[in-house]
From TrEMBL:
Family designation: Belongs to the adaptor complexes large subunit family.
Name of the protein: AP-1 complex subunit gamma
Sections of the chain in a coiled coil: none
Subcellular location: Cytoplasmic vesicle membrane; Endomembrane system; Golgi apparatus
Cellular component GO terms, alphabetical: AP-1 adaptor complex; synapse
Region annotation (Disordered) ranges: 593-613
GO biological process, one term: intracellular protein transport
Sequence ranges assigned to domain GAE in this UniProt record: 664-779
UniProt keywords, alphabetically: Cytoplasmic vesicle, Golgi apparatus, Membrane, Protein transport, Transport
InterPro entries: Adaptor_Complx_Large_Subunit, AP1_complex_gsu, ARM-like, ARM-type_fold, Clathrin/coatomer_adapt-like_N, Clathrin_a/b/g-adaptin_app_Ig, Clathrin_app_Ig-like_sf, GAE_dom
One Pfam family cited in the UniProt record for this chain: Alpha_adaptinC2
Gene3D superfamilies recorded: 2.60.40.1230, Leucine-rich Repeat Variant
Biased composition (Basic and acidic residues): 593-606
Length: 784
């Protein structure tokens, strides 16, 4: 006896009643067998019922591909019940990857020309859901005719189908330009919303359409003003706001039309002010409209007073109880801080309060905005707030906060003493989170401030005596004690509280650092060097120092052992030269680059160059770039490291900080520019290594969208040797945010003319971009 096929409702009940996955599969397999048998028998009366059951099975995640051809048969059927299920099946079971979807093109064309609204609606829905580029090209004229049909039901669906066609085939924009102007006179909000969306798509994809629709700005302004001034309507109002969806769409379109266009911006200024002042923000719908208004004001050429009003609106958003609204406000203010810094500064106290938010995303965004608001006039107050936040912030924010405070102090420090105090407090609070170049920066800062040597060594000694766990702080303190230990023992500093320190206490503290399990090998190297220097600065006997140094002559750490053995050699064979070798370092000045307005970035590159970590595996992979230039550079050896001090081998051995004299300036070079992304090259040739060229690659982004996953790869001819250092990041914030820098070290022993090939890969405006280009116009100073 043949078991009859189940009805759809019975099938649903039986599947839901299955207690195990195996029972469910058994029910579905049995029913799918009945559906296949029915399809083979060709029963036209029950075909739509069988397909409906198959679609439910498909929604549960089971295979249903064998019903694709049945969809085509139902679509071609004259019965509406068949067409309804057939079109639904086509939307669910067919897509562009299968050639079968092209077979329904003729059926859709016939249904669009039938004149039956329900059938036309089904065809339009299917076309807008799964229509491929070929189908869009074939049916564009049919859809264009339906845009002006009397039925609002058909016109609304035709507009949405046109939006899909423009997204698939932007070349079809000319077909839909004339109907859009007439559709703007519609009173039906659904059609008007679809029309605004269609015009937005056209303007984003066609410069000609953008120029064409700038003529309708007054009409758009009139529509939006009517929405704003219209009273409550049960059909369109949401939380007291008249059709916020349509208002938001119109504001987005106005933003596109008014961008970089003075006349259009002037036309919409009054309306934007009206929307900004009359919209109720007590509900989420009003906040959405107001936020779009702010974005439009900031993106067009609006009046200065209007821009201040937009910033004030975002300031009110910061006081909202909704965390999402506060996050949106912080993000928008961060984008605007470059262009309207003074207006954003008025809301600085509120931004600082957001640092205490328990929500991690809010506090991170508030930290970024707070760092962007620091300037020379508020650096003391802002740094104090940021340091307070640093003491209690989550661990994942400490690195960003510490680095931001150090950079702000370097740029805007009012005095050297304040600068030193700020760095010391950061090292004391979050020393393990600071950047690698913080130690080198502070030692150079202290070395260049002769009047603060005694003050600095006392502060550092006190901090070291309290805590030896913060490795960067211990390294700076050890260096400073070694350099200026005699000033520590004199006790003649008027700027600090009286501090009496004995020689034995200083030596005991450095020995404690050497013996601590928390000390890294580099920290022990600093402490051992400090002890050696103190052997020439202390008045007492140096036997204790000699004994400590001799102990580390058998240390397991090879570098520390070598350092100790050579220090012992100084004691035993070259004791008469020890005082001259270990004398104080001369005053150092930070190297500066004076070319093309990039002094700040070049200075940071020179100071942090020795702290960057070499990434040899990455470099070897990047050099093998598909036979770039005249051969592969994959076999090239990395160039020798740059000696940080020109004082000879012993100076390098003792790890004494030093800086080469400023190199002669080489003109900077802009080698790439596209959609707001720019790439600049700055050059430095160290005097001690004439064959070595340092190239700092600086990428900046002035566009309105973030550049993410940014990777810069380089290759040189095989006669050169190239080494790439790790980049500072892979994200370039919009509107001129922090740049991404990367150091290239090129060794040119033959002094041959330099050619460089670069490959950039990144994501911008939602698209993946790859650019490969060759740089042949490098200045002759880079290789001669």
């Amino acid at each position: 006896m043949v078991v009859p096929s189940l009805k759809l409702q019975d099938l649903i009940e039986e599947i839901r009643g299955a207690k195990t996955q195996a029972q469910e599969r058994e029910v579905i397999q049995k029913e799918c067998a009945h559906i296949r048998a029915s399809f083979r028998d060709g029963d036209p009366l029950h075909r739509h019922r069988q397909l409906a059951k198959l679609l439910y099975v498909h929604m549960l995640g089971y295979p249903a591909h064998f019903g694709q051809m049945e969809c085509l048969k139902l679509i071609a059927s004259p019965r509406f019940t068949d067409k309804r299920v057939g079109y639904l099946g086509a939307m669910l079971l067919l897509d562009e990857r299968q050639d079968a979807h092209l077979l329904i093109t003729n059926s859709i064309k016939n249904d669009l020309s039938q004149g039956i609204q329900a059938v036309q609606g089904l065809a339009l829905c299917t076309l807008s859901t799964m229509g491929s580029a070929e189908m869009c090209r074939d049916l564009a004229t049919e859809v264009e005719k339906l845009l002006l049909q009397p039925s609002s039901y058909v016109r609304k669906k035709a507009v949405l189908t046109a939006v899909h066609m423009i997204r698939k085939v932007p070349e079809l924009s000319n077909i839909f330009l004339p109907p859009c102007a007439q559709l703007l006179h519609e009173r039906h909000h659904g059609i008007l919303l679809g029309t605004i969306t269609l015009i937005t798509e056209l303007c984003e994809r066609s410069p000609a359409a953008l120029k064409h629709f700038r003529k309708v700005v007054p009409q758009l302004v009139k529509i939006l003003r009517t929405l704003v001034t219209t009273g409550y309507s049960t059909e369109h109002s949401i939380s007291g706001v008249s059709d916020p969806f349509l208002q938001v769409r119109i504001l987005r379109l106005l933003r596109i039309l008014g961008r970089n266009h003075e006349e259009s911006s002037e036309t919409m200024n009054d309306l934007l002010a009206q929307v900004a002042t009359n919209t109720d923000t007590s509900r989420n719908a009003g906040s959405a409209v107001l936020f779009e208004t702010v974005l439009t004001i900031m993106d067009i050429r609006s009046a200065p007073g209007l821009r201040v009003l937009a910033v004030n609106i975002l300031g009110r958003f910061l006081l909202n109880n909704d965390k999402n609204i506060r996050y949106v406000a912080l993000t928008s203010l961060l984008r605007m801080v470059q262009s309207d810094h003074s207006a954003v500064q008025r809301h600085r106290p509120t931004v600082v309060e957001c640092l205490r938010e328990p929500d991690a995303s809010l506090s991170r965004r508030a930290l970024e905005l707070s760092l962007a608001l620091v300037n020379s006039s508020n650096v003391r107050a802002m740094t104090q707030e940021l340091q307070s936040f640093l003491e209690s912030c989550p661990p994942d924010l400490r690195a960003d906060c510490a680095s931001g405070i150090l950079l702000a102090a370097e740029r805007f420090a009012p005095t050297k003493r304040w600068h030193i105090d700020t760095i010391l407090r950061v090292l004391t609070t979050a020393g393990i989170y600071v950047r690698d170049d913080a130690v080198a920066n502070l030692t150079q800062l202290i070395g260049g401030a002769q009047e603060l040597h005694a003050y600095s060594v006392r502060r550092l000694y006190s901090a070291l005596a309290e805590d030896i766990s913060q490795q960067p702080l211990v390294q700076v303190a050890a260096w400073c004690i070694g350099e200026y230990g005699d000033l520590l023992l004199e006790g003649s500093c008027e700027e600090t509280e009286p501090l009496q320190v004995e020689e034995e206490e200083v030596l005991a503290l450095l020995e404690k650092v050497l013996q601590s399990h928390m000390s890294q090998p580099a920290t022990r190297g600093y402490a051992l060097t400090a002890l050696m220097k103190l052997s020439t600065r202390l008045r007492g006997d140096s036997n204790r120092i000699r004994q400590v140094v001799s102990i580390y002559g058998s240390c397991l750490d090879v570098e520390l052992q070598q350092r100790a053995v050579e220090d012992n050699t100084l004691f035993q064979k070259y004791d008469h030269m020890r005082a001259a070798i270990l004398e104080k370092m001369p005053l150092v000045e930070r190297g500066r680059s004076q070319v093309d307005g990039e002094a700040k970035e070049s200075k940071e590159a020179q100071l942090s160059e020795t702290a960057l970590v070499s990434t040899e595996p990455q470099a070897s992979k990047l050099l093998d770039l598909l036979d770039l230039l005249d051969g592969t550079s994959g076999d090239a050896q990395p160039p020798p490291p740059l000696d940080p001090s020109p004082g000879g081998a012993l100076v390098h051995l003792l790890n004494l900080p030093g800086a080469p004299p400023p190199p002669p300036s080489i003109p900077n070079l802009r080698v790439f520019e596209r959609e707001g992304l720019q790439l600049h090259l700055s050059f430095v040739r160290p005097p001690g290594t004439p064959a070595l060229l340092l190239i700092m690659v600086t990428a900046t982004n002035t566009s309105g969208a973030d550049v993410t996953h940014f990777i810069c790869q380089a290759a040189v001819p095989k006669s050169f040797q190239l080494q790439l250092q790790a980049p500072s990041g892979d994200t370039l914030p919009a509107q001129g945010g922090l740049p991404v820098t990367q150091l290239l070290r090129i060794l040119n022993p033959n002094k041959a003319p330099l050619r460089l090939k670069l490959r950039l890969t990144y994501n911008h405006f939602g698209q993946s971009v790859q650019e490969i280009f060759e740089v042949n116009n490098l200045p002759v100073e880079t290789w001669q």
